[in-house]
């Protein structure tokens, strides 16, 4: 899901650390974990933008390995051997599919109705999907389209408006906290110059929110 909010950098650094300290993945805190996975997204979309006719399946495998490496780093101090492989492998089986990356189907907003705690009214699903429909079609037509940068940003703003109107997030809930982190991360992988992951004024990573599905299955 894409979310957008305008916030000052320094106060948010403290806010994020305080709000999400109870949520973690292995030994990794929630926000640093998400930032690492967004880096994996960056590599994939940058490669697609530079060579849209290249082997998307190969690039997906590279992104998948990047995810695996980052996840493993969060569990390597807790487990070893087969137990480590099992923990990491169980998460990886639920990660975004090749279709989600290569066909852009993972660029749609999260559907909270799938989870045990749905903070959104019934109108949220359709209206949030309307926000990203044009983005998905544009990406499917040409992943190197320079308009994706601004279209992605517009989708962020649109989904944020819909979320603010129809949803109430509870930061004690892992799923809601995951989404809220994305409200504070400035990141756009579709621009020629990728937005710095250290800033916080817009969030993105719709594909990454599919990762949330994987983690919720394990909680």
Topology (elements, then pairings):
Blueprint: H1 9-19, E1 24-25, E2 28-29, H2 30-50, H3 56-75, H4 81-92, H5 98-102, H6 123-141, H7 148-166, H8 174-182, H9 208-218
Antiparallel strand pairs: 1-2
How many DSSP E strands? 2
In N-to-C order, the SSE pattern is HEEHHHHHHHH
Strand share of the residues? under 5%
Strands in their spatial order, largest beta sheet: 1-2
Outline the low-pLDDT stretches.
1-20, 198-206, 208-219
Judged by helices, strands and strand pairing, the structural class is: mainly alpha
Number of domains: 1
Average predicted confidence as pLDDT: 75
Rg estimate, integer Å: 17 Å
Number of helices: 9
User: How far apart are the first and last residues' alpha carbons, in Å?
Assistant: 20 Å
Overall outline: globular
Provide the helix percentage.
55-70%
* Biggest pleated-sheet summary: 2 strands, antiparallel
Notes on the structure:
With 219 residues, this protein is mainly α. It has one domain. The protein is built from nine helices and two strands; from the N terminus they run αββαααααααα. The protein has a two-stranded antiparallel sheet with strand order 1-2. A hairpin with a 2-residue loop joins strand 1 and strand 2. Helix 2 (30-50) packs antiparallel against helix 3 (56-75), helix 3 (56-75) crosses helix 4 and helix 6 (123-141) packs antiparallel against helix 7 (148-166). The chain is globular. The two termini are 20 Å apart. Mean pLDDT is 75; it is low at 1-20, 198-206 and 208-219. Residues 1-18 form the signal peptide.
């Amino acid at each position: 899901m894409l979310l957008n909010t305008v916030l000052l950098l320094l106060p948010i650094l403290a806010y994020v650390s305080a709000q999400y300290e109870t949520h973690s993945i292995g030994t990794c805190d929630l926000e640093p974990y998400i930032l690492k996975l967004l880096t994996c997204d960056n590599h994939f979309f940058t490669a697609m933008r530079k060579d849209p006719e290249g082997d998307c399946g190969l690039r997906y495998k590279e992104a998948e390995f990047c995810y695996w490496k980052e996840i493993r780093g969060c569990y390597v101090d807790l487990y070893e051997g087969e137990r480590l492989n099992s923990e990491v492998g169980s998460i990886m089986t639920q990660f975004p599919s090749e279709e989600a990356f290569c066909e852009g189907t993972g660029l749609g907003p999260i559907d909270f109705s799938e989870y045990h705690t749905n903070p959104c009214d019934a109108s949220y699903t359709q209206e949030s999907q309307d926000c990203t429909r044009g983005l998905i079609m544009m990406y499917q037509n040409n992943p190197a389209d320079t308009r994706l940068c601004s279209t992605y940003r517009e989708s962020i703003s649109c989904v944020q408006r819909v979320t603010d109107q129809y949803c109430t997030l509870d930061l004690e809930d892992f799923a809601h906290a995951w989404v809220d982190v994305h409200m504070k991360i400035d990141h756009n992988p579709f621009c020629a110059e990728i937005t710095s992951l250290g800033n916080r004024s817009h969030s993105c990573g719709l594909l990454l929110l599919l990762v949330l599905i994987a983690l919720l299955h394990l909680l």
